[in-house]
What we know:
Elements: E1 2-3, H1 8-14, H2 21-31, E2 32-34, E3 51-55, H3 62-72, E4 91-92, H4 112-118, E5 126-127, H5 143-148, E6 168-170, E7 181-183, H6 190-207, H7 210-214, H8 236-246, H9 299-314, H10 320-325
Parallel strand pairs: 2-3
Antiparallel strand pairs: 1-4, 3-4, 5-6, 6-7
Helix pairs in contact: 2-9, 6-8
Amino acid sequence: MIYVRGSRHDYDRWETEGWSYKEVLPYFLKIEDMKIADLVNSAYHSTGGYLPLTRTKATSLPNVYERVVEELGYKTVDVNGEDHIGIFSFAGNEGHLFDKSTKGNHSLLYPDYQLQFYSGTSKGNDVPANTGLTFNFNESVLEEAARRSDDNEIIIFPMLFHPKSIGSMKLKSKDPFDHPLINPNYLSQQDDVYILIEAVRKVQMITQTKPFQEMGATLNRLDYEGVCDREEFDSDVYWECLIRHYAVTAYHPTCTCRIGGTNDQTSVVDTKLSYFKGIRNLRIADASVMRHVTSGNTNAPTIMIAEKAADLIRGKDTVIKYRKQIKQLRL
C-alpha cells in the first residue's frame, strides 16, 4: 500500500470545521510506525502506530532519477513532510493481517450512495452532475501496450490529481441490491485534457535530460490502426486523441457523500460524519466523505478518516500527544 497523505492544501481546501490539515495531521501520526531511518525522528512522522512504513523499492534506477531532478531544478523531498513538490520515494506498507474473528454483520453492508437513495432522503432518482462527486479516469484496454513492452522499458504515469470533470449516479431500479448506473463523465472538462497534455510534455522533457540520453532512452511510440492515425504526430491534437482513448482510472473514487454544512446542497454528512438527511445515528467514514480528492493515493487519508471517526463516535480524544508534537511545525 502506498502511503501518501496528500497536500496540506487539500484539507485546508475542504473549508470544513475540524478537518484542516492541522486538525487531521495528528491522526496520520497516530497511524504510523515509521521504519525509514532518515524519517524516524522527523516531527512530521511518528513510531508506535499499527501501520509500519518502509521505503518502497519501485525502481532500479534511483540514481538516474535523482540526477534528472537535479538537472531540472527540483529537489528530493519527503512527500509527507513540509514540502510536497520534488522527487521522492514512496513510503508504503507491504503486508496486512485481517482478523477473521472481528465481528460484523455482512448482511447489513450497503454502499452508502444506495443508502442515501433508498432512505428516501434523496430528491429524485439521481445525484445531480453538479454536486462535486468525483470519479477519476476511465478504464481502457492495455493488452497491446503490455504485449509490446519488455525488460528494458520504463513507464512514467502522469496523473491528474484534481479533475474538474464531475460524474453522476442514477438508480437502476427499486431493488437495493441492483448496482447503480454510474457515469464518471471523464475528461468532460477540457482543462483536464490540457493538464494531461502538459504532463506529456513534461515526460518528453525528462527523456531529453543528460541521464536519460546517456542510457539511450527514447520514447516508445505506439500506433493503433484507426486510432489517432489521422492526427499529426506529437501535436496537441494527437495527444488529446490518445488521452481520450487510453486514459485509465487510478481506482480511487471519492466524494460521493461529501462532508459539509447543512446548507450545502452538495454535501451528505456533517462535520461529525453524521448523515443529516433523515436517518439518525448513522455515520459514514470512508473516502466518500472527502470534500475534494486528495493529491495521491487515497489509502492513507481513508485510514485517517476512520481514526477520526472513531474518536467522534466515542467522544474521545486519542491524539493529544500528537497535537503537542506538531506545535513546532509550520502549519
